[in-house]
Amino acid sequence: MFDEVTLKLNVDPLIMSALREDITSEDVSANCVMRQPQTGEADLICKEDGVICGLQVFERVFRLLDPATEIEFYFEDGQDVKAGQLIAKVRGDIRVLLCGERTALNYLQRMSGIATYTRQSAAYLEGTGTSLLDTRKTTPNNRIFEKYSVKTGGGRNHRLNLSDGVMLKDNHIGAAGSVKKAVEMAREYAPFVRKIEVETETVEMVREAVEAGADIIMLDNMTFEQMKESMKIIAGRAEVEVSGNVTRENIAALAELGVDYISSGALTHSAPIMDISLKNLHAI
Questions:
Q1: Report field, pTM of the whole predicted structure over 0.85
Q2: Does 246 have pLDDT greater than 90?
Q3: 3-state class of 219 per DSSP?
């Protein structure tokens, strides 16, 4: 769950922006059928199997619209749910339930889909000692939600943003002139507590990164044979991350190389949503 400070500083402004996108002045449809305040209740129902995630965000949408809204949850984030199960009952002003429904479900469906996809992918790494990481390939303004979903599904977070750590990619290396020079410049500039990761695309770049003293070496879009040779060169002198073209079909084989991390942008950019509905709204 998000703590209260994170909610107020980082989550609430994003939710409010999403609500403003959906409601520029009023919810005309809701106001047509409900002219006066009226308490109502609706069922939050799961329509397919998966991992539920984002219940706190779902609730926050309605409570930002009306703090009096009440939600009784029957599950917690990270739990498996089955099609047809009742996840929660939502009670409050019917107009609030109507105008907040789509935004709340958008968050919940997207976050649950990512958690489910991550859980399925992480299962291939059980018992290997290799961690599954996400990337910065996230939906703009939704990174905090998507990375939380990865953690809920059993993955780990790579950098949250560019301020989190030093990763010297191909264009950084090109700008510096070489792997060696890029690492030297990073050591000089970055706080000493920061690890330095170098993205490599060839075996020769791996050698340079090891000699330069990189803390983490990413093997990016390499062939299996290149990765095997690279592991021999690194020989435990740096942590190793594999990235690029990671699929469910090859993830277990990649872990057998003995790498520390496997990162996959697909966790956030390709996970399908989980089908969840708010149904049976009625006055009480």
A1: yes
A2: no
A3: strand
